[in-house]
Protein backbone atom coordinates (compact mmCIF):
# COMPACT_ATOMS: atom_id res chain seq x y z
CA UNK A 1 0.00 0.00 0.00
CA UNK A 2 1.38 3.38 -0.99
CA UNK A 3 -1.59 5.65 -0.38
CA UNK A 4 -2.56 7.15 2.95
CA UNK A 5 -4.12 4.63 5.33
CA UNK A 6 -7.40 6.05 6.55
CA UNK A 7 -8.72 4.87 9.92
CA UNK A 8 -12.17 4.74 11.42
CA UNK A 9 -12.49 4.49 15.19
CA UNK A 10 -15.40 2.24 16.14
CA UNK A 11 -15.90 3.41 19.70
CA UNK A 12 -15.11 6.76 21.30
CA UNK A 13 -13.06 5.04 23.99
CA UNK A 14 -10.55 6.01 26.65
CA UNK A 15 -7.93 3.60 25.28
CA UNK A 16 -8.20 5.19 21.85
CA UNK A 17 -7.94 8.67 23.35
CA UNK A 18 -4.97 7.82 25.56
CA UNK A 19 -2.95 5.54 23.27
CA UNK A 20 -4.24 4.53 19.85
CA UNK A 21 -4.90 7.93 18.28
CA UNK A 22 -1.31 8.96 18.96
CA UNK A 23 0.02 5.60 17.73
CA UNK A 24 -1.88 5.83 14.44
CA UNK A 25 -0.69 9.38 13.84
CA UNK A 26 2.89 8.35 14.62
CA UNK A 27 2.88 6.14 11.50
CA UNK A 28 3.82 7.68 8.15
CA UNK A 29 0.82 8.24 5.88
CA UNK A 30 -1.79 7.22 8.47
CA UNK A 31 -4.72 9.45 9.32
CA UNK A 32 -7.92 9.17 11.37
CA UNK A 33 -10.99 10.00 9.30
CA UNK A 34 -14.00 9.29 11.50
CA UNK A 35 -15.01 8.27 15.02
CA UNK A 36 -18.22 6.40 15.75
CA UNK A 37 -20.25 6.47 18.94
CA UNK A 38 -23.84 5.47 19.56
CA UNK A 39 -24.30 8.88 21.21
CA UNK A 40 -24.07 11.79 18.76
CA UNK A 41 -23.01 14.36 21.37
CA UNK A 42 -20.25 12.07 22.61
CA UNK A 43 -19.10 11.44 19.04
CA UNK A 44 -19.07 15.16 18.22
CA UNK A 45 -17.24 16.14 21.39
CA UNK A 46 -14.73 13.32 21.02
CA UNK A 47 -14.01 14.29 17.42
CA UNK A 48 -13.50 17.94 18.37
CA UNK A 49 -11.29 17.14 21.36
CA UNK A 50 -9.09 14.79 19.33
CA UNK A 51 -8.95 16.72 16.04
CA UNK A 52 -10.84 14.05 14.09
CA UNK A 53 -12.56 15.58 11.06
CA UNK A 54 -15.72 13.47 11.02
CA UNK A 55 -18.02 11.65 13.41
CA UNK A 56 -21.07 9.42 13.07
CA UNK A 57 -23.47 7.21 15.00
CA UNK A 58 -24.15 4.51 12.39
CA UNK A 59 -21.69 1.73 11.61
CA UNK A 60 -22.90 1.58 8.00
CA UNK A 61 -21.95 5.23 7.47
CA UNK A 62 -18.40 4.63 8.67
CA UNK A 63 -17.90 1.42 6.70
CA UNK A 64 -19.26 2.86 3.45
CA UNK A 65 -16.63 5.63 3.51
CA UNK A 66 -14.01 4.90 0.81
CA UNK A 67 -11.47 7.03 2.67
CA UNK A 68 -11.35 4.43 5.47
CA UNK A 69 -9.05 1.44 4.96
CA UNK A 70 -8.84 0.12 8.53
CA UNK A 71 -10.86 0.24 11.72
CA UNK A 72 -9.95 0.11 15.37
CA UNK A 73 -12.71 -1.57 17.42
CA UNK A 74 -12.78 -0.58 21.10
CA UNK A 75 -16.46 -0.85 21.97
CA UNK A 76 -17.71 -3.06 24.80
CA UNK A 77 -16.82 -6.70 24.31
CA UNK A 78 -20.22 -8.06 23.31
CA UNK A 79 -20.27 -5.75 20.27
CA UNK A 80 -16.94 -6.81 18.76
CA UNK A 81 -18.20 -9.73 16.67
CA UNK A 82 -21.00 -7.92 14.86
CA UNK A 83 -18.81 -4.90 14.17
CA UNK A 84 -15.87 -6.99 12.97
CA UNK A 85 -18.03 -9.08 10.64
CA UNK A 86 -19.47 -5.91 9.13
CA UNK A 87 -16.01 -4.36 8.74
CA UNK A 88 -14.64 -7.47 7.04
CA UNK A 89 -17.59 -7.56 4.67
CA UNK A 90 -16.83 -3.93 3.78
CA UNK A 91 -13.19 -4.79 3.05
CA UNK A 92 -11.74 -2.92 6.03
CA UNK A 93 -8.68 -4.16 7.88
CA UNK A 94 -9.27 -4.63 11.61
CA UNK A 95 -7.41 -3.94 14.84
CA UNK A 96 -9.70 -5.18 17.61
CA UNK A 97 -9.47 -4.83 21.34
CA UNK A 98 -9.27 -7.92 23.48
CA UNK A 99 -11.14 -10.06 24.15
CA UNK A 100 -12.04 -10.52 20.51
CA UNK A 101 -15.44 -11.87 21.57
CA UNK A 102 -17.18 -13.59 24.46
CA UNK A 103 -16.99 -17.10 22.99
CA UNK A 104 -14.50 -19.08 20.94
CA UNK A 105 -17.08 -19.69 18.23
CA UNK A 106 -17.64 -15.97 17.83
CA UNK A 107 -13.91 -15.25 17.74
CA UNK A 108 -13.39 -17.97 15.14
CA UNK A 109 -16.21 -16.53 13.03
CA UNK A 110 -14.46 -13.16 13.09
CA UNK A 111 -11.12 -14.63 12.03
CA UNK A 112 -12.71 -16.72 9.28
CA UNK A 113 -14.62 -13.71 7.94
CA UNK A 114 -11.43 -11.67 7.70
CA UNK A 115 -9.60 -14.47 5.94
CA UNK A 116 -12.39 -14.87 3.38
CA UNK A 117 -12.48 -11.10 2.81
CA UNK A 118 -8.69 -10.90 2.45
CA UNK A 119 -8.31 -8.30 5.20
CA UNK A 120 -5.81 -8.13 8.04
CA UNK A 121 -7.06 -8.91 11.53
CA UNK A 122 -5.04 -8.02 14.61
CA UNK A 123 -5.69 -8.14 18.35
CA UNK A 124 -4.58 -5.25 20.55
CA UNK A 125 -2.44 -7.23 22.99
CA UNK A 126 -0.13 -4.35 23.79
CA UNK A 127 2.16 -5.94 26.38
CA UNK A 128 3.95 -8.20 23.90
CA UNK A 129 5.17 -4.99 22.23
CA UNK A 130 7.15 -3.83 25.26
CA UNK A 131 10.92 -3.69 24.74
CA UNK A 132 11.30 -5.46 28.08
CA UNK A 133 9.27 -8.43 26.89
CA UNK A 134 11.13 -8.58 23.60
CA UNK A 135 14.38 -8.79 25.57
CA UNK A 136 13.01 -11.52 27.86
CA UNK A 137 11.87 -13.48 24.80
CA UNK A 138 15.34 -13.15 23.29
CA UNK A 139 16.96 -14.36 26.51
CA UNK A 140 14.73 -17.41 26.64
CA UNK A 141 15.28 -18.21 22.96
CA UNK A 142 19.05 -17.86 23.46
CA UNK A 143 18.86 -20.28 26.42
CA UNK A 144 20.38 -17.70 28.78
CA UNK A 145 18.81 -19.32 31.86
CA UNK A 146 18.20 -22.80 30.53
CA UNK A 147 14.82 -24.51 30.60
CA UNK A 148 12.13 -22.33 32.24
CA UNK A 149 10.36 -24.24 34.99
CA UNK A 150 8.27 -21.76 36.99
CA UNK A 151 6.89 -18.32 36.22
CA UNK A 152 5.19 -15.77 38.46
CA UNK A 153 3.21 -12.88 36.99
CA UNK A 154 2.15 -9.90 39.11
CA UNK A 155 -0.46 -7.76 37.37
CA UNK A 156 -2.68 -6.39 40.11
CA UNK A 157 -3.69 -2.75 40.27
CA UNK A 158 -6.54 -0.45 41.25
CA UNK A 159 -9.24 0.36 38.72
CA UNK A 160 -9.59 4.17 38.60
CA UNK A 161 -13.06 5.70 38.88
CA UNK A 162 -13.30 6.66 35.19
CA UNK A 163 -12.88 2.97 34.25
CA UNK A 164 -15.34 1.57 36.78
CA UNK A 165 -18.06 1.17 34.15
CA UNK A 166 -18.60 -1.79 31.83
CA UNK A 167 -15.46 -3.45 33.17
CA UNK A 168 -17.30 -4.23 36.40
CA UNK A 169 -20.99 -4.25 35.49
CA UNK A 170 -21.11 -5.66 31.96
CA UNK A 171 -21.47 -9.36 31.08
CA UNK A 172 -18.17 -9.15 29.20
CA UNK A 173 -16.27 -7.50 32.05
CA UNK A 174 -14.27 -8.78 35.00
CA UNK A 175 -10.54 -8.79 35.56
CA UNK A 176 -9.92 -12.07 33.70
CA UNK A 177 -11.25 -10.95 30.31
CA UNK A 178 -10.05 -7.37 30.77
CA UNK A 179 -6.56 -7.81 32.23
CA UNK A 180 -5.48 -11.41 32.87
CA UNK A 181 -6.02 -12.15 29.20
CA UNK A 182 -3.06 -9.83 28.51
CA UNK A 183 -0.91 -11.87 30.91
CA UNK A 184 -1.84 -15.04 29.05
CA UNK A 185 -0.88 -13.54 25.71
CA UNK A 186 2.38 -12.21 27.15
CA UNK A 187 3.34 -15.62 28.51
CA UNK A 188 2.55 -17.28 25.19
CA UNK A 189 4.77 -14.71 23.50
CA UNK A 190 7.65 -15.07 25.96
CA UNK A 191 7.69 -18.85 26.21
CA UNK A 192 6.78 -19.78 22.63
CA UNK A 193 4.50 -22.32 24.30
CA UNK A 194 0.78 -22.94 24.65
CA UNK A 195 -1.26 -23.34 27.85
CA UNK A 196 -2.81 -26.79 28.16
CA UNK A 197 -4.58 -26.73 31.54
CA UNK A 198 -5.54 -24.25 34.26
CA UNK A 199 -6.88 -23.97 37.78
CA UNK A 200 -7.97 -20.79 39.51
CA UNK A 201 -9.74 -19.00 42.34
CA UNK A 202 -11.41 -15.61 41.98
CA UNK A 203 -12.47 -12.86 44.34
CA UNK A 204 -15.10 -10.11 44.34
CA UNK A 205 -13.55 -7.70 46.80
CA UNK A 206 -14.61 -4.18 45.85
CA UNK A 207 -16.26 -3.65 42.50
CA UNK A 208 -17.98 -6.82 41.35
CA UNK A 209 -20.44 -9.47 42.46
CA UNK A 210 -21.94 -12.74 41.29
CA UNK A 211 -20.13 -14.21 38.30
CA UNK A 212 -17.97 -11.13 37.95
CA UNK A 213 -14.54 -11.03 39.57
CA UNK A 214 -12.14 -8.23 40.46
CA UNK A 215 -9.31 -10.52 41.56
CA UNK A 216 -7.88 -13.84 40.42
CA UNK A 217 -5.11 -16.28 41.27
CA UNK A 218 -4.54 -18.75 38.44
CA UNK A 219 -2.12 -21.57 37.74
CA UNK A 220 -1.39 -22.35 34.09
CA UNK A 221 0.47 -25.40 32.77
CA UNK A 222 2.18 -25.03 29.38
CA UNK A 223 2.94 -27.65 26.78
CA UNK A 224 6.69 -27.22 27.42
CA UNK A 225 6.21 -28.29 31.05
CA UNK A 226 6.47 -24.85 32.61
CA UNK A 227 3.96 -23.80 35.29
CA UNK A 228 2.91 -20.16 35.70
CA UNK A 229 1.17 -18.40 38.57
CA UNK A 230 -0.83 -15.30 37.67
CA UNK A 231 -2.12 -12.73 40.16
CA UNK A 232 -4.53 -10.23 38.65
CA UNK A 233 -6.73 -7.70 40.42
CA UNK A 234 -8.59 -4.40 40.14
CA UNK A 235 -8.64 -3.90 43.89
CA UNK A 236 -5.10 -3.16 45.14
CA UNK A 237 -3.25 0.14 44.91
CA UNK A 238 0.38 -0.71 45.72
CA UNK A 239 1.11 -4.08 44.09
CA UNK A 240 4.22 -4.21 41.89
CA UNK A 241 3.81 -5.37 38.31
CA UNK A 242 6.32 -7.86 37.03
CA UNK A 243 7.36 -11.29 35.83
CA UNK A 244 9.82 -13.77 37.35
CA UNK A 245 10.98 -16.77 35.32
CA UNK A 246 12.94 -19.49 37.11
CA UNK A 247 15.11 -22.34 35.85
CA UNK A 248 17.15 -24.65 38.05
CA UNK A 249 19.96 -22.21 38.79
CA UNK A 250 19.09 -18.87 37.12
CA UNK A 251 16.17 -16.51 36.84
CA UNK A 252 14.91 -13.57 34.84
CA UNK A 253 13.39 -10.91 37.07
CA UNK A 254 11.42 -8.15 35.34
CA UNK A 255 10.00 -5.26 37.36
CA UNK A 256 7.33 -2.71 36.37
CA UNK A 257 6.83 -4.39 32.99
CA UNK A 258 3.05 -5.00 33.06
CA UNK A 259 2.30 -1.45 32.01
CA UNK A 260 0.97 0.43 29.01
CA UNK A 261 3.87 2.81 29.46
CA UNK A 262 7.36 2.20 28.06
CA UNK A 263 8.99 1.49 31.42
CA UNK A 264 10.48 -1.37 33.41
CA UNK A 265 13.72 -3.16 34.17
CA UNK A 266 14.99 -6.65 33.41
CA UNK A 267 17.58 -8.48 35.51
CA UNK A 268 19.42 -11.78 35.19
CA UNK A 269 19.73 -13.43 38.58
CA UNK A 270 22.37 -16.12 39.17
CA UNK A 271 24.68 -17.30 41.96
CA UNK A 272 26.57 -13.99 41.76
CA UNK A 273 23.50 -11.81 42.26
CA UNK A 274 21.36 -9.65 39.96
CA UNK A 275 22.69 -8.11 36.77
CA UNK A 276 20.60 -5.49 34.98
CA UNK A 277 20.02 -5.99 31.25
CA UNK A 278 20.10 -2.79 29.15
CA UNK A 279 16.74 -1.93 27.60
CA UNK A 280 15.99 0.63 24.89
CA UNK A 281 12.35 1.47 25.54
CA UNK A 282 9.79 2.24 22.86
CA UNK A 283 6.12 3.19 22.92
CA UNK A 284 4.25 -0.12 22.92
CA UNK A 285 1.40 1.09 20.73
CA UNK A 286 3.73 2.73 18.21
CA UNK A 287 5.41 -0.66 17.76
CA UNK A 288 2.03 -2.37 17.38
CA UNK A 289 0.79 0.07 14.75
CA UNK A 290 4.09 -0.13 12.88
CA UNK A 291 3.70 -3.91 12.67
CA UNK A 292 0.09 -3.48 11.53
CA UNK A 293 1.18 -1.17 8.73
CA UNK A 294 3.85 -3.64 7.65
CA UNK A 295 1.18 -6.32 7.48
CA UNK A 296 -0.89 -4.05 5.23
CA UNK A 297 2.15 -3.83 2.93
CA UNK A 298 2.50 -7.64 3.06
CA UNK A 299 5.84 -7.34 4.86
CA UNK A 300 4.93 -9.42 7.91
CA UNK A 301 2.18 -10.13 10.41
CA UNK A 302 0.59 -7.92 13.06
CA UNK A 303 2.24 -8.02 16.47
CA UNK A 304 -0.71 -10.08 17.74
CA UNK A 305 -2.88 -11.77 15.12
CA UNK A 306 -6.52 -12.73 15.33
CA UNK A 307 -5.41 -16.27 16.13
CA UNK A 308 -3.35 -14.92 19.05
CA UNK A 309 -6.51 -13.21 20.28
CA UNK A 310 -8.50 -16.43 20.00
CA UNK A 311 -5.92 -18.48 21.89
CA UNK A 312 -5.63 -15.99 24.74
CA UNK A 313 -9.44 -15.93 24.94
CA UNK A 314 -9.55 -19.74 25.12
CA UNK A 315 -7.25 -19.72 28.15
CA UNK A 316 -9.14 -16.87 29.83
CA UNK A 317 -12.44 -18.71 29.44
CA UNK A 318 -10.86 -21.87 30.85
CA UNK A 319 -9.66 -19.88 33.88
CA UNK A 320 -13.16 -18.51 34.45
CA UNK A 321 -14.62 -22.01 34.21
CA UNK A 322 -11.99 -23.47 36.53
CA UNK A 323 -12.76 -20.81 39.15
CA UNK A 324 -16.52 -21.34 38.84
CA UNK A 325 -16.33 -25.14 39.10
CA UNK A 326 -13.41 -25.49 41.50
CA UNK A 327 -11.86 -28.01 39.08
CA UNK A 328 -8.82 -28.06 36.85
CA UNK A 329 -9.79 -27.40 33.24
CA UNK A 330 -8.13 -28.37 29.98
CA UNK A 331 -7.82 -25.50 27.52
CA UNK A 332 -9.99 -25.99 24.45
CA UNK A 333 -8.88 -23.99 21.42
CA UNK A 334 -11.65 -25.10 19.07
Task: Give an overview in words.
- There is one protein chain.
- With 334 residues, the protein is of the alpha/beta class.
- It folds into two domains: 5-124, Rossmann fold, CATH 3.40.50.720; 127-284 and 314-330, Dihydrodipicolinate Reductase, domain 2, CATH 3.30.360.
- The protein is built from ten helices and 15 strands.
- Strand 2, helix 2 (40-49) and strand 3 (54-56) form a beta-alpha-beta unit.
- Residues 6-125 form the Gfo/Idh/MocA-like oxidoreductase N-terminal domain.
- Pfam families: GFO_IDH_MocA, GFO_IDH_MocA_C3.
**CATH homologous superfamily title of the largest domain:** Dihydrodipicolinate Reductase, domain 2
Q: Report the major sheet.
A: 9 strands, mixed
Please compute the radius of gyration using only Cα atoms: 20 Å
Quaternary state reads single chain
The name of the CATH architecture of the largest domain is: 2-Layer Sandwich
CATH class of the largest domain: Alpha Beta
Instruction: Give the helices and strands as they follow along the chain.
Output: EHEHEHEHEHEHEHHEEEEEEEHHE
CATH topology of the largest domain: Dihydrodipicolinate Reductase, domain 2
Strand content: 15-25%
Number of helices: 10
List unreliable stretches of 5+ residues: none
The shape is: globular
The percent of residues in helical segments reads 25-40%
Strand order, largest beta sheet: 14-13-12-11-7-10-9-8-15
Count the E strands.
15
Terminal residue distance: 34 Å
Mean of residue pLDDT?
Answer: 95
Number of domains: 2
Structural class: alpha/beta
Domain GFO/IDH/MocA-like oxidoreductase: 134-252
Domain Gfo/Idh/MocA-like oxidoreductase N-terminal: 6-125
Pfam families: GFO_IDH_MocA, GFO_IDH_MocA_C3
GO molecular function: nucleotide binding
Amino acid sequence: MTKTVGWGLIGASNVAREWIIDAIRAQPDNEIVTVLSSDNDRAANYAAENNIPHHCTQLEALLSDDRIDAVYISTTNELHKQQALAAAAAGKHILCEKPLALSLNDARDMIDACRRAGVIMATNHHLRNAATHHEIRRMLRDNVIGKPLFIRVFHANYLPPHLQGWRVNNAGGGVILDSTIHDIDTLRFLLDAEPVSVTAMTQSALFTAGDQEDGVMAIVRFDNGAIAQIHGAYSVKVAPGGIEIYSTDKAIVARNVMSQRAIGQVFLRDAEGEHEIPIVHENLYHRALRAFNKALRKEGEPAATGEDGLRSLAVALAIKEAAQTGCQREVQYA
